[in-house]
Amino acid sequence: MVHRKRFPEKRRWKRRKKTPAVHIRPEADARLKKVFAEIGVPEQIPFTPDAFQLEAVEAIRRYDCLVTAPTGAGKTWIATETISEFLNKGKRAWYASPLKALSNAKYVEFSELFGPETVGILTGDRKENPEAPVIVGTTEILRNQLYDAMHRGESLNADFVVLDEAHFLGDADRGVVWEEILIYLPPRIPILMLSATVGNAEEIAGWLSAIRLKKCVVVKETRRPVPLYPLFFHPSGRLFPLLSESGTGARKKSRLHKKVAEYAAMPHPPRLAPPNRLPPFGAILRVLRKYKLLPAIFFLKSRSDCDTALDLCTENPIQNEARKAAVSRKIEEICAASQRIARHRQLWQLEHLGVGSHHSGQLPAWKLVVEKMMTEGLLDAVFATSTVAAGVNFPARTVVFLNSDRFNGREFLPMTPTEFHQMTGRAGRRGMDRIGFAVALPGKFMDLKLIADLIDQAPTDVASQIKINFSMVLNLLLSHTPEQIEGLLAKSLAAYQIGEWAQRHSGGRPQANPSKILWRDFMRHLSFLAETGFVDPEGRLTHDGQWASRLRVDQPLLIAEGFRQNLFPETDPALLAAVTSVFVFEGESEGDIPRKEVPRRLEKAFAALAEGLSPFVEKMAKRRFFANPPRITPAFTLYLWASGQPWETVLKKTGMAEGDLAMLILRTVDNLRHVAALEEVFPDAAATALNAIDLLMRDPVIVEELEPEPLQDLD
Asked: 257, 347, 589, 709: which has the highest count of C-beta atoms within 10 A?
């Protein structure tokens, strides 16, 4: 069950019997006249690097460097300037980002800057020009290259590494990859880390300096390139400053504006919409348009809210004739390139209302269309879940919040400073806006005091997320003894942070072996690998352990055990794709798929896999290693698609959202690529895996790039 935090003032709303009716009329507090006068396009001046940019470039010539600066401040310039210096010396660079979409964008940008022959890309989905002196890719690919280099007894073929979005070091699911990279990278390779939201930059730098035995310089820039001004949208339609400031200098504090505080204290305040209903977005857009606060990104709590919001904008047709013509031209171009996009259920709203919906349930191709049109200045608003704040680059003049809490995948919790700064980082387009805005809408789950506090708070500290898993253990054992691995674990950020905490709370006395928890967990994994024949009694990989190490996926042991027992259909691409998908599915239920719909040959292959792996799964559970039981839903879904069924048919029969189906296919393809790497041991399965990938990677899973047009001022 999902639980939401209820803020104190919201409990009083629950007891109210009647909701005061409101009529939205565009108005603004008199104090905002001067603020709104700042709206406009800044004067175009020749580019000159800021002091923090020059400081970072100078630092990386001798040391490692961690740069923290707001979104849009120019962190990428530091990377490109430094890459250029390395290229001029005949050296190589690696640029790693957390997202394939971000890697693709940087690949295009760097190819234009350095020349297409100089840049390659490695994301799993794409492998182009892999021997180029500049490689752009995902962090997982970089980590895997480090594994391979250590196994061969070589050093990574790079002279400089950039880790973009470095705050992912603290990501619960993927932070371990960042930490492994930083531990394994040879000290000879300078590291440039870039982020807008690392609260404890000095601590991270101290850890890197300790494990790499070279200085890590922290370069901080706190000034936003486009100043942010927070607003409150009263249900009447009147805009107020969200904050009033008191004091000066270091004692300057922000608190709720008097009128906003009075509203928050009302026992029965008027509101924009009845409980569990979305506000009238068309009327809200009229207010924002009057005061030139568009385009805007509205952050909503769910996919369904983003889609529903579009239908609440019907009174917001595109008025500007130049914009209308530009939108029509772009829609024609898009529809000519993709018939599926031409039939998209939200195309009408995009073309006639200038609004779009962007969330993980959408097709990758559709999200790309929305992103391109927003960056080209063709849309008034995008309704998005908070995931758009991380890595996707389409800023707006204004961001709008309906809630001060955020769903983390399990429950709703109050927004953190890092999450807030990631979202507000999209407010204000560098080179297009002199000022950006963050607008708080009142509602059931909006804590105005929390939003006011978040504006002045520093980003959240990054904490180690390293955890031992079987893929890590297998790959480290390729090139290290258990004793050497113990030394590597002692270099973890977790060990450093535990040690720092212990010193602060033990009178400065150093504590022995702060990484013992990690080491015990490593030994627990090692013991199970020995028990199941992947490791010998001396801690060396057996033949099975060596080829299993190539399976750098979420469930390497289950897939390896399936191959050891000959449970995979090694000559049928559609069946292999189907049964491979069960190792990546994260759905919570089986859905409503009638068993009679499942082809007999699939049911037989699935049953053989589930029954054959059952003893191994039970053995894992006894050692406290838990795996999700195999489910027929993903297997049925992938079998339909791999067998050539139309996209719409697969969606209808499975009830999946388009984005979820695309993600299931792409993650299955990633697992199949690792199966294809086993060609020396299982040549038939490896060849079949490649054939299965060809069956899966077809329209609309493959995203065709749309070249952006120059931004235009169409206000």
From this structure: 257
Largest Cα span, the chain:
78
* pLDDT value, residue 16: 35
CATH number of 51-220: 3.40.50.300
Rounded-to-integer distance, Cα 168 and Cα 182, Å: 12
64-68 and 216-220 beta bridge pairing? parallel
Band of the pLDDT at 699, cuts 50, 70, 90? confident
The confidence band for 593, taking pLDDT boundaries of 50, 70 and 90, is confident
SS3 assignment, position 68:
strand
Residue 11 pLDDT level (bands cut at 50, 70, 90):
very low
For residues 672 and 580, is the Cβ–Cβ distance under 8 A? yes
Q: Where are the domains of the chain?
A: 8-42+226-456, 51-220, 466-549, 553-715
At the topology level, CATH places domain 553-715 in Sec63 N-terminal domain-like fold (1.10.3380)
How many angstroms separate the CA atoms of 151 and 27, rounded? 66
Kindly give the interhelix angle for 600-622 and 573-580, rounded to the nearest 10 degrees.
40
Q: Is the pLDDT of residue 572 over 80?
A: yes
Gyration radius from the chain CA atoms: 27
CA-based angle 572:599:647, to the nearest 5? 80
Q: Which amino acid is at 496?
A: Y
For residue 216, what are the contacts with CB-CB under 8 A and spacing of at least 6?
63, 64, 65, 66, 191, 204, 205, 206, 208, 209
CB within 8 Å of 141: residues ≥ 6 apart: 96, 122, 123, 124
Distance from the Cα of residue 562 to its chain's centroid: 32
The answer to whether 215 and 64 have CB atoms below 8 angstroms apart is: yes
Domains 8-42+226-456 and 553-715 share a fold: no
Residue 116 CB neighbour total at 10 angstroms: 14
pLDDT tens for residues 374-395? Answer: 988 899 999 998 766 555 667 8
Rounded CA-CA distance 490/513 in Å is 8
Q: Report the distance separating Cα 169 and Cα 245, nearest Å.
A: 34
Percentage of the chain exceeding pLDDT 90: 70
CATH class of the domain whose range is 8-42+226-456: alpha beta
Q: How far apart are CA 457 and CA 421, in angstroms?
A: 9
In this structure, the number of other CB atoms found within 10 A of the CB of residue 686 comes to: 17
Angle at 232 between CA 227 and CA 236, to 5 degrees: 145
709 touches 373 (CB < 8 A): no
pTM exceeding 0.85: yes
> Cα dist. 406→242, 276, 413, 422, 669 in Å?
20, 16, 6, 13, 31
Flag whether pLDDT at 4 surpasses 60. Answer: no
- pLDDT tens for each residue of 282-306: 999 999 999 999 999 999 998 999 9
Distance, CA of 552 to CA of 138 (rounded, Å): 14
Q: Which of the 8 DSSP states describes residue 437?
A: E
Residue 88 has pLDDT above 50, yes or no: yes
Of residues 331, 231, 247, 328, the one with CA closest to residue 288: 231
Question: How many other CB atoms sit within 10 Å of the CB of residue 711?
Answer: 13
Place of tokens 């050692």: 623
